[in-house]
Amino acid sequence: MFPHPFIRRAIQEAQYARDEVGADGTMGYRLAPPLRFIDDYVFFRVSSDPSLTQEQLVNELAGLLCEKPENQGQVKEAINTLEQFWSTRKLEDLERVEKLLRELLPVEHSKNLEYVSNGVTFLTSLIRMVQPGVTPSQKNKLKLELYQTVKPMYIFQGLTADIVWLPEAVRFFNARVDMMLQDYTSPIYVTVPGTEVVGRSVYPKATAQPFTFQWPKDASGKKD
Q1: Which domain holds residue 108?
Q2: Residue 158 falls within a domain, yes or no?
Q3: In the 3-class helix/strand/coil scheme, how is the chain assigned residue by residue?
Q4: pLDDT tens for residues 197-211?
Q5: Which is higher by pLDDT, 20 or 168?
Q6: Could you give the number of structural domains in the chain?
Q7: Is 196 inside any structural domain?
Q8: What is the pTM of this model?
Q9: Could you report the per-residue pLDDT of 18-37, keeping only the tens digit for each?
Q10: Which of 14-28, 72-86, 178-192, 200-214 ranks highest by mean pLDDT?
């Protein structure tokens, strides 16, 4: 749901598909909400051209997110810092990204930039809730502040709903936020590699060749 660049991992997977499996181009399609704009764009570009570097991809993304060329440098810094956050998990990285993007919203009219900025704001609020020393009462206060913040955001209308469904909206909002916090702090999730490239030596050798099953024979000697 959140704007996760996955730049280095996407490049690795595209190169793996080409070099090990022999699959060039995009082999599948994913429907995704606008908040997935960054990682979906990276996925499709490196699937069709695995030679692209992180710098080239970020330059393209900045051009798509900005209407004004003079703002592209600030967006590139935000994207690279966002990519860095998923490895460092430092709140200050997220706060830096949020500040960089929010500064541009008054002078840019790109909906994609607004969606990504809203997603970073949501994510930053979540990470504040799981910081060491945050008490349950402080967490509830932060959650209420987050709810009020996202209510006017177009991309989160499914979580805030209209006034007729307000009781249900609040219940689902609470449940979703708690689930995201549990996922983020889960020991299993924390130990799963994020954006860093991974060694594939632990995996079986990939192949695009068909595999013939060796079915066992029955008592008469015939294969089942």
Answers
A1: 7-129
A2: no
A3: CCCCCCHHHHHHHHHHHHHHHCCCCCCCCCCCCHHHHHHHHHHHHHHHCCCCCHHHHHHHHHHHHCCCHHHHHHHHHHHHHHHHHHHHCCHHHHHHHHHHHHHHCCCCCCHHHHHHHHHHHHHHHHHHHCCCCCCHHHHHHHHHHHHHHHCCCHHHHHHHCCHHHHHHHHHHHHHHHHHHHHHHHCHHHHHCCCCCCCCCCCCCCCCCCCCCCCCCECCCCCEC
A4: 766 665 556 666 776
A5: 168
A6: 1
A7: no
A8: 0.79
A9: 777 676 655 544 445 667 77
A10: 72-86
Taking the C-alpha atoms of residue 41 and residue 27, their distance in angstroms, rounded to an integer, is 14
Residue 110 falls within a domain, yes or no? Answer: yes
User: Tokens representing 87?
Assistant: 């490895």
- 211 found inside a domain: no
Q: Which residue would you say has higher pLDDT here, 141 or 188?
A: 141
